[in-house]
Design brief:
The structure holds two protein chains of two kinds. Chain A is α/β, with parallel strands linked by helices. Chain A folds into two domains: 263 residues, Rossmann fold; 76 residues, formyl-coa transferase, domain 3 (2-Layer Sandwich), CATH 3.30.1540. In chain A, helix 1 packs across helix 8. The longest helix of chain B has 24 residues. Classes of the chains: A alpha/beta, B alpha/beta. Chains A and B meet through helix 2, helix 6, helix 7, helix 8 and helix 9 of A and helix 2, helix 6, helix 7, strand 6 and helix 8 of B.
Chain lengths: 396, 423
């Protein structure tokens, strides 16, 4: 355990206060893992290539604005509460600074292609020799082992390898990718849980190297499809068009609601109370007609409230804007307003879980190299002149 | 077997369905002793009806057997490594056994609707009187405050409610669910993380705490980039099929037998000019390489429809695996769309030990998902099977709590514990 750093942010009651994380990741999976560390109070130092930085900084940038380092939503969201230090790991001086940082680091997270850390001379074995309490977490598309280890993959490819795509879309049409980065986020979460377990066990087990594969992680989201296959050779897959199980949609006055048709007499009775008229027992189509008419005369919110009161788990079909403006999300202050020097003041999604005895921190994502001087001079004790010289040489 | 990270920790699970049990399974995979608590009056609904689901395909070889509730693959997958106790918490003696268990446990996880623990007289304030440094995780759908606090949720509701489903579809304006309940899967990993963070803090300070994981909020965290984009642009992003905002070609194409029974598809994502040249080389399409419609990413993007149609004709002559390997060897990011059956024969899955056979008293040797993290501390642990209902009543009450056999006999006779669902 490293002592609490003078430059740590937030209050001493934060759960991960005093933990230092060196973040060698970019894009989504790795940064989501280290975002969770930062949210719950760890000091996360993001190491970025001088002048280039995390590739996610430029998502959405056009060819003409490639040099423009104005950060993207992906970068801004995933890198809140972190510090950015630029460092050229291919220079001898850069490597010396990295080794100094490693001595006082609890967790290092990296998502280079497998083999890159070794080529840079910073394999787990090399780092373990300097700091045997170190937890190192490697996140990659397919893991550090296996025949696909060096294959290339995008989010869509990973959803395909892992089996998610086979489940989304309609039977008879092509499989669909989920329109959000499900594979990479899942892997980031998984990596965070695994690194917390390793950190917790450090007093008895010492350091360890954790190997996370995005493909492995995606397989866990298939709702036991593998066990099903093992039990009776049944391959689960996409449903026919309009065959959404338990998710029929009905048009309300301001959009759609999702409701499950009554499954038994008890539910039918409850439904008839909600709609205020008796419903036929053996005619689901007639029930549907009555229900649709009742829904059409109400707003999504009214339908949901009435159904929930009768213990139906109905929900509204929302856009991202609608959920952000919903009464529930507003009242719980889930979004936090954060000011960023370039992007301005924007609402950021908060923390996934709320801890009774400790807080979270959301501060703006760092500009590239924003904390290079602070960390090198403040924490490591280098001089202003040294840092200026290294900046000139392209080390920082 | 090598040591595992959570050895020595005990977790009590008052969870049902998917998210809660899967969170606990992750902790069990890490070495914690997990005890699943159910009641014969109210077993986990994932066990199915006492007489079995009408759809026999839910069971091994379509056979419900004598104890259908122990034979459901979903339940047995999510409870790998747990001990099972069936205990009636509404009986004062059952409640006392539970409190005795809390006294010797580190963590309680529950995913009942908002007020159930309170109405049972078992909320955090009560439990911490019994175990002062207890960590308790509650996993409500929407949280303990706000106008929706008493609303029920299940996976599909959350996908639509959160705006997640509106991001997936063949065309803009469509909303499609994942088909697998992504919010549950995500809540499982966030839930395990929450417990681990609290255990870490307890290791530093000695204090326990209550954690609330509102599944709606956990779900929103996994689309935080899209939400911020929404705020920046003032517009809600919409579904866009398999297309990418910048890259082309970027899609899912039929292979041999594609649209038919084989359901065989390959995804191809070209993210650079080198990859585009490599794709044309593999496809032996010099005319694509020379076509002015396709010379830059932006040009290909604006002629995406015709380009995709051409690629689809070419891919239809290949097996999905064969084509994906061919393209990967040439440096093009490609992937066959795999299903569960494919995974059972996939060399990467085998190399990573991601499907492991486990022997279960009612269903025999079946395969389940393996450990999703690999560590230098040692090989994956061999998982124990999911418990049959009440399988470990005796072990937990006698060996862990030290009750004598005669007292347990009484509880069994009077139905406070049991091994068969009441109905």
């Amino acid at each position: 355990m490293t002592a609490a750093k003078d430059d740590a942010r937030g209050s001493g009651t934060m759960a991960l206060h005093g933990v230092r994380v060196l973040d060698l990741t970019q894009m989504i999976a790795g940064p989501y893992c280290t975002r969770l560390f930062a949210l719950y109070g760890a000091q996360v130092i993001k190491l970025e290539r001088p002048r280039v930085g995390d590739r996610a900084r430029r998502i959405g940038a056009t060819a003409e604005s490639k040099e423009n380092l104005e950060p993207s939503a992906t970068f801004l969201y995933l890198n809140t509460s972190k510090k950015s230090v630029t460092l050229n790991l291919k220079s001898a001086q850069g490597m010396e600074i990295f080794m100094r940082l490693i001595c006082d680091t609890d967790v290092v997270v990296e998502n280079f292609r497998p083999g890159v850390m070794r080529r840079l001379g910073i394999s787990y074995e090399a780092l373990d020799a300097i700091n045997n309490k170190l937890v190192m977490v490697s996140i990659s598309n397919f893991g550090q082992t296996g025949p696909y280890r060096d294959y290339d993959a995008t989010e869509m490819n990973l959803q395909a390898w892992g089996g998610l795509m086979h489940m989304a879309g309609e039977r008879g049409r092509e499989p669909l990718r989920l329109g959000y980065a499900a594979a990479q986020y899942e892997a980031g979460q998984n990596a965070f849980a695994a690194s917390m377990a390793a950190l917790l066990a450090r007093p008895t087990m010492g350091g360890q190297h954790v190997d996370i594969a995005i493909m492995d992680t995606v397989m866990t989201s298939l709702n036991s499809a593998h066990a099903h296959y093992s039990y009776n050779q049944q391959v689960q897959g996409r449903r026919p068009a309009g065959g959404g199980k338990g998710t029929d949609r009905f048009k309300a006055s301001d959009g759609y609601v999702i409701a499950r048709p009554p499954r038994n007499a008890v539910e039918l009775e409850r439904l008839s109370k909600v709609v205020g008229e008796s419903l036929p027992v053996d005619d689901p189509d007639a029930v549907s007609v009555v229900f649709a008419r009742w829904v059409a005369a109400r707003t999504k919110e009214e339908v949901m409230a009435a159904g929930q009161k009768a213990q139906f788990a109905w929900g509204a079909l929302n856009s991202t804007q609608e959920i952000m403006q919903s009464a529930q999300i507003r009242e719980r202050e889930f979004f936090q307003s954060v000011d960023h020097p370039v992007a301005g003041t924007l609402p950021y999604a908060g923390a996934p879980f709320r801890m009774g005895a400790s807080g979270t921190t959301v501060t703006a994502a760092p500009t590239l190299g924003q904390h290079t001087h602070d960390i090198l001079c403040g924490s490591l004790g280098y001089t202003d002149d040294q840092v200026r010289h290294w900046a000139h040489e392209g080390v920082v | 077997m090598s040591r595992r990270a959570l050895e020595g920790y005990r977790v009590l699970s008052l969870t049902n369905h998917w998210a809660g049990p899967s969170a606990v399974r992750l902790l069990a995979d890490m070495g914690a002793q997990a005890i699943k608590l159910e009641a014969t009056k109210r077993p986990d609904p994932a066990r199915g009806p006492k007489a079995g689901h009408r759809d026999r395909r839910e069971y091994p070889n379509d056979d419900v057997g004598r104890d259908p509730w122990n034979r459901v693959p979903r339940f047995n997958e999510r409870h790998l490594g747990s001990l099972g106790v069936a205990l009636d918490l509404s009986d004062p003696r059952g409640k006392q056994v539970f409190l005795d268990l809390v006294r010797v446990s580190d963590v309680v996880v529950e995913n009942f609707s908002a007020n159930v623990m309170r109405s049972l007289g078992l909320d955090y304030e009560v439990l911490r009187q019994v175990k002062s440094d207890l960590i308790m995780l509650s996993m409500p759908g929407f949280g303990a405050s706000g106008p929706w606090k008493n609303y029920r949720s299940f996976g599909p509701t959350l996908e639509y409610l959160s705006g997640m489903a509106a991001l997936t579809g063949y065309e803009a304006g469509q909303s499609m669910p994942s088909g697998v309940l992504i919010p549950d899967c995500m809540a499982a990993m966030h839930g395990a993380s929450a417990v681990l963070v609290a255990l870490f803090q307890r290791q530093q300070t000695g204090a326990g705490q209550h954690i609330e994981l509102a599944q709606l909020e956990g779900t929103l965290c996994l689309m935080g980039d899209v939400l911020l984009q929404t705020a920046m642009s003032g517009e809600s992003p919409m579904a866009n099929g398999n297309r990418h905002a910048v890259f082309a070609p970027h899609g899912c194409f039929p292979c041999k037998g594609g649209v038919g029974k084989e359901d065989a598809w390959v995804t191809i994502a070209v993210t650079s000019e080198d990859q585009w040249a490599a794709l044309c080389r593999v496809a032996k399409k010099d005319d694509w390489l020379a076509d002015p419609h396709y010379t830059t990413m932006a040009a290909r993007k604006s002629h995406e429809l015709e380009l995709n149609a051409g690629i689809g004709v070419w891919t239809a002559g290949f097996e999905k695996y064969q084509l994906a390997h061919l393209l990967q060897k040439a440096g093009v990011p490609a992937a066959p769309v795999l299903n569960a059956r494919d995974h059972f024969g996939d060399p990467q899955v085998l190399a990573r030990n991601m499907l492991v056979p486990v022997d279960h008293p009612s269903v025999g040797v079946r395969s389940y998902l393996g450990t999703t993290w690999k560590t230098s501390a040692g090989p994956d642990a061999e998982p124990k099977p999911a418990p049959t209902l009440g399988q470990h009543n005796r072990f937990v009450l006698q060996d862990i709590l030290g009750m004598d056999a005669a007292a347990v006999d009484v509880l069994e006779r009077e139905g406070v514990i049991g091994t068969e669902p009441l109905k």
